[in-house]
Amino acid sequence: MQPYEIRQCVAVDCHFRFPAAAGDTAGTSCPHCGAPTKQAATPQAGGTPPIQTSPRFTRLELLLDNIRSLYNVGAIIRTADGAGIVHLHLGGITALPTHPKLAKTALGAETALPWTQHRNSVHAITQLKSEGYFVWVLEEGETAVNLFTTPLPQQPNQPILLLIGNEKVGVDPAIQQLADCIFALPMSGIKNSLNVAVAFGIAIYQIQFGSK
After folding, report:
1. Are residues 99 and 31 located together in one domain of the fold?
2. Nearest to 152 by CA among 168, 172, 136
3. Are residues 135 and 188 in the same domain?
4. What pTM does this model have?
5. Mean pLDDT of 174-178
6. What confidence score (pLDDT) does residue 43 get?
7. How many structural domains compose the chain?
8. More confident residue, 17 or 103
9. Domain range holding 204?
10. DSSP code string of 153-164
């Protein structure tokens, strides 16, 4: 990983502060006023070690149904890897981990998780349910329950499939009918939903590492 440094503008009336790659001449001039800069700090190489803990569910898989944004798919894959997802299912138009542009947001996680592609997510879920999987859906709606106040199953080895749907139309109604539980995130602002990658990140960390 290329080392970085924190640069600061030397102009008294500016003092713009920003990160720059070590040795990059672009960092020697202030991007705000153009004055020279100096090195102000050196970030720790590689960052601090992450907190290590075991996820609550050891057989939790994820299905992305018709996620259209490459950015969202890459961000979700990176989060899924960090949260202990063991297998990815990619339905409909969802880009595959082999897509070259996913690496920009997945940052290597796209090569870490096994995955399966499905042309029809309804068929895939029907098959997985027949194999004993619980199906959980993340979606707003009248039948949804608050993820933060709903007790989760106590069987950590239960196979579970968590599903998130398309950014515009949400989760396919046929999939919602197959779900064992539909979870929603509480909202208190003027919007009634979050970006799908953000919502997934909040939900999966509550499921895997939240208070029992």
Report:
1. no
2. 136
3. yes
4. 0.83
5. 96
6. 85
7. 2
8. 17
9. 60-209
10. PS-TTS-EEEEE
